[in-house]
Specification:
The complex is a heterodimer of chains A (614) and B (347). With 614 residues, chain A is α/β, with parallel strands linked by helices. In chain A, the strands form 5 sheets. Chain A has a 7-stranded mixed sheet with strand order 11-10-12-13-15-14-21, sandwiched between helices. In chain A, helix 3 crosses helix 7, helix 10 runs parallel beside helix 11 (306-322) and helix 17 packs across helix 21. The two termini of chain A are 27 Å apart. In chain B, a hairpin with a 5-residue loop joins strand 11 (258-262) and strand 12 (268-273). Classes of the chains: A alpha/beta (614), B alpha/beta (347). Chains A and B meet through strand 9, helix 8, helix 10, helix 11 and strand 17 of A and strand 2, helix 3, helix 5, helix 11 and helix 12 of B.
Chain lengths: 614, 347
């Protein structure tokens, strides 16, 4: 989706230079707890409703009220929805950061600001638009208590006027935001937006050198965050036991699921729940409960972030060794330790792939979009039960908590696969079973569920040494056979994990390997490299660990392969080093960003140019 | 009883199973270990009550105690979890399948030291299961360190005294929400049998702290968890008679002397007070009695608290009657219409 065929009109009478159409970034600087989220969502949605590809990134503090927050809206007729570093229009609402925010801008940018801040004195190379927010809000919001919340809507009106955003779309977005039933809230906010619009119309003769024009690139699309998309995936996967402990940025995943499950997962006849969602006392308990439930035959899951992953380490080893299915959603944030809880990173990759002591390896799924959050979550539940092991769905704060436009999710057509489970009737036929015997050659034994009414059904599940019959053993041969079967099972998984997405450029000598949300920056960078430097680059996006043969073929095809990591130590490269042959490793180069913001294309492009010497 | 001399057919319980079918593997614990007596009482009580072993799930943590589920109810599934975290595994399993009868075996280290957090939250949820603490005040598998139930002043084999106060797991359980709390002694067959049967019949969390001396590391002079010490200091609160629902109550209960508790499954627990005035339905007074006994160096055994009315965690969740784990696809995957509706809302 890197390019869209559009030919917008790029000139406007009365302006000295042609305005840039549908290709700009707006940054809104506020303090958290001031109700700016509504104004920001409405602005983003207005552009979306005009058919313009748009993305919104919330950069917020780990705090409830009073600290700086930045929300960046990017509109791109080309369909680029990754982060863009350059800001074209700044809405400076936070006195504390306004000075620094203004000083960081490139020349020519526009600044909409609260008049008393007098930001226009700071620089002469920017377009300044002072707005008397307090004066404007008073008449449209008689209730002084609500003014703090409503005043933000004024900048929506100002921006709408300056960028020619259709006010009708602002109104529609407001109704969408509050719902038909909250007509009062809609009216109040609409009044504020109109006041901003009218003030700007009457005050500023010149607009900004950017314009929003209707196009047709968002028809039928939805706006959703990755956490909600994962939650929907889990619900449609038929999850039955959800155990969790609140942690940013994963909390909203389970909270979304609670909301959806309440509406759609109660028995129509009895009203009773077809699922259990339990807030545990900590992550040790949440993963323990998920494993207990998986052992008893439930489709179970938990959701967490880095610190939770660290705590779950011991239990995940039990899940691996005793072969108990469950799905763990890891919405990554910046580590180590508490780190930056509200910033994004791909920092848990190696930890999670090898989580727990002893020889352990776990399958990881890497969605990069809401569509994949939905589809891969469903796939993860099947995979966990098919291979009887914990499966991790790795997303990050950028994907999980930001709003993304996406195609509507297709209904899962494949029936649910519960894996190898023997019933009492099966046991009658077979005369018995050995829990950890590889009867099918795929390394996966058959299991029975507790509660199976059969004298041959019971077995003892344990994290201590066990033989094929699940009996305690410390024998050398039993231990080695079991560990070797687990390796074989992992090798079989390679054939079943989601395959990478590969795009080969004809004459490319270099290639990118990336995963998750790095996708947006890498795809845009490929276009930049070609357009600006004439460099062709291929790209392989990993969608899972263990790696598949596609990765090896891809590296062989290219002279140098840049492995993109949103972490300091190049964890994806590190994981590849553990598995690849030396001649392939020799071709790998590390491209890392770890500042806690979503990766942007320019950072990638600049790195390549520095390395490739052009 | 019949007076004929012909050998009876194999002795079976009221669901037609022999006692053999309630046994497990051969124990690997030390000869004379109190835990083995507890396993025997479990076999006996489940057999006598005719519990279907296929509906039972056994859970344990890590330690000597936690090995014991392998030694009883061999026809039941078992899960030996990680140290101190059996409550989470059991909770998950029971959420998945509410028709299972859960029995957890833990030790004093597994419960009161590493597992105190999960133990407390299991209690707080009143998770319907049986939780047995095989309490010997010492770490056996690591060869004789104090646990958090070791009494103040009790000594290790080396003579080192314990200078920290013990957790009283029964007091904790009573205070924070368990609905059947009892303490027993592995050597008291009759009492432990009645307590286990009550736990089986109880709807809610049963916490049973069984003093179970460690013959290898904590049975010496100076230990307060030795056979000799416990025998000398035990104060038996009541005489207990458990009358299962399938047996008729033939004897009338004299007013005032015996408390008769009707259990959820229709069985009765008859509690005959001994020396002291003790009401196991009065949580506050029971806690006071425990405090007083501790001050006097007595070990109170018997039913400490019983509440048959409080809802369990599973009841609070309002789950379907069938196990959620095995609901068919049609009941756990919402329809295409639902997805369409959700997508529409997001446009």
């Amino acid at each position: 989706m890197s390019t869209l065929e559009v030919s917008p009109v790029e000139s406007q009478p009365g302006q000295p230079s042609k305005p840039v159409v549908n290709d700009f970034s707006i940054q809104i600087a506020t303090v958290n707890g001031s109700g700016s989220q509504t104004a920001n969502s409405v602005l983003m949605r207005s552009l979306f409703q005009m058919g313009i590809p748009v993305s919104g990134k919330n950069m917020f503090p780990s705090n409830i009220a009073g600290l700086p927050t930045w929300f960046t809206i990017r509109a791109s007729k080309y369909g680029y929805i990754g982060r863009r570093k350059e800001i074209d229009i700044l809405v400076a609402m936070n006195a504390e950061t306004a000075r620094e925010d203004v000083m960081k801008l490139d020349g020519g940018a526009a600044v909409i600001y609260d008049g008393p801040l007098k930001l226009n004195e700071l620089r002469s190379d920017l377009h300044f638009f002072p707005i008397p927010f307090d004066k404007l809000v008073a008449p449209v919001c008689p209730n002084a208590k609500l003014r703090k919340l409503v005043r933000n809507m004024i900048y929506d009106g100002v921006v709408a006027r300056l960028l020619s955003i259709d006010m009708e779309e602002v109104y529609k977005a407001l109704v969408k935001q509050f719902g038909e039933r909250k007509a009062k809230a809609v009216d109040l906010n609409w009044g504020a937006a109109k006041a901003g619009f009218e003030f700007a119309a009457g005050t500023f003769a010149d607009g900004v050198p950017y314009r929003a024009e209707r196009m047709n690139s968002t028809a039928g699309k939805i706006i959703i965050d990755g956490n909600a998309a994962c939650a929907l995936g889990a619900m449609f996967a038929g999850v039955t036991v959800v155990t969790w402990y609140p942690i940013t940025p994963s909390s909203s995943l389970v909270e979304s699921l609670i909301g959806y499950a309440k509406r759609f997962r109660h028995d129509p006849d009895t009203g009773k729940a077809t699922y259990a969602i339990v807030q545990a006392e900590d992550e040790l308990a949440s993963i323990g409960m998920a494993l207990g439930a998986g052992w008893a035959g439930a489709r179970s899951m938990t959701a967490t972030a880095g610190p939770g992953i660290s705590l779950m380490s011991e239990f995940i080893g039990l899940g691996y060794y005793a072969e108990v299915p469950t799905v763990v959603f890891d919405v990554e944030r910046v580590g180590p330790s508490t780190g930056l809880p509200t910033r994004t990173q791909q920092g848990d990759l190696i930890t999670t792939a090898l989580l727990s002591h002893g020889d352990t390896r776990h399958p990881l799924f890497f969605p990069c979009s809401p569509e994949e959050c939905f589809s891969m979550s469903i796939e993860a539940f099947d995979f966990a039960e098919k291979f009887q092991t914990p499966v991790f769905v790795m997303t990050d704060l950028d994907l999980g908590m930001n709003n993304w436009m996406a195609d509507p999710f297709p209904y899962p057509e494949k029936p649910i696969n519960r894996g190898k489970i023997l019933t009492a009737e099966d046991l009658d036929r077979l005369g018995g079973f050995a829990r950890y015997k590889d009867v099918d050659g795929d390394g996966v034994g058959w299991r029975t569920l507790p509660g199976t009414h059969h004298p041959k059904a019971a077995c003892f599940t344990r994290g201590s040494g066990h033989n094929e019959k699940a009996q305690y053993t410390e024998r050398e041969d039993d231990y080695i056979n079991n560990m070797d079967r687990l390796v074989h099972k992992f090798e079989v998984m390679r054939q079943h994990v989601p395959e990478p997405v590969v795009s080969l450029a004809e004459k490319a000598r270099i290639g990118f390997v990336a995963w998750g949300t790095s996708d947006y920056a890498v795809r845009e960078s490929c276009d930049q490299l070609k357009a600006e430097y004439g460099i062709e680059a291929s790209y392989l996006r990993l969608r899972a660990y263990p790696f598949t043969g596609h990765l090896l073929d891809f590296i062989r095809r290219h002279e140098r392969v840049y492995v993109v990591d949103q972490n300091r130590d190049g964890q994806l490269l590190g994981l590849m080093r553990l598995e690849l042959d030396v001649e392939l490793i020799a071709k790998l180069r590390s491209l890392r960003y770890y500042g806690g913001l979503p990766l942007d294309a320019r950072t990638v492009t600049d790195h390549i140019i520095a390395q490739e010497g052009k | 009883m019949s007076a004929t001399v012909t050998p009876p057919p194999k002795k079976v319980n009221h669901i037609g199973l022999e006692v053999l079918q309630y046994k497990g593997g051969k124990t690997t614990l030390c000869a004379g270990c109190g835990h083995n007596s507890i396993s025997e009482r479990i076999i006996e009580s489940f057999y006598e009550l005719g519990i279907d072993p296929y509906t039972v799930a056994k859970f344990s943590g890590i330690g000597c105690s936690s090995k014991s589920p392998a030694y009883f109810l061999g026809l039941s599934h078992g899960f030996n979890a990680v140290h101190g975290r059996m409550p989470a595994i059991a909770t998950g399993a029971l959420l998945a399948n509410r028709t299972l009868m859960g029995i957890g075996l833990s030790g004093d280290g597994d419960t009161a030291s590493i597992g105190i957090g999960q133990f407390m939250h299991l209690i707080r949820r009143n998770m319907p299961m049986i939780y047995i603490i095989e309490d010997n005040g010492v770490y056996g598998l690591t060869k004789g360190q104090f646990s958090a139930t070791a009494d103040l002043g009790s000594t290790l084999k080396s003579g080192t005294p314990n200078n920290l106060p013990p957790f009283d797991c029964c007091a904790l359980a009573m205070k924070w929400g368990a609905t059947f709390v009892a303490r027993s002694f592995s050597g008291d067959k009759k009492q432990l049998n009645a307590i286990l049967k009550t736990a089986i019949a109880h709807r809610g969390l049963s916490v049973i702290d069984v003093i179970s001396p460690c013959v290898t590391f904590n049975d010496h002079e100076g230990s307060t968890k030795s056979y000799a010490y416990v025998k000398e200091h035990e104060e038996v609160l009541q005489e207990l008679d458990f009358v299962p629902s399938f047996e008729d109550i033939t004897v009338d209960i004299p007013e005032g002397e015996v408390m008769d508790v009707l259990m959820h499954d229709g069985s009765h627990l008859r509690i005959r007070k001994l020396q002291r005035d003790f009401d196991p339905t009065d949580r506050f007074k029971a806690l006071v009695a425990l405090e007083e006994a501790e001050a006097k160096g007595e070990i109170l055994t018997g039913v400490l608290y019983l509440n048959t009315a409080k809802p369990t965690f599973l009841e609070l969740l309002d789950l379907t009657d069938e196990p959620v784990a095995t609901l068919p696809e049609a009941r756990v995957r919402p329809s295409r219409t639902v997805l369409d509706q959700v997508m529409d809302e997001l446009r």
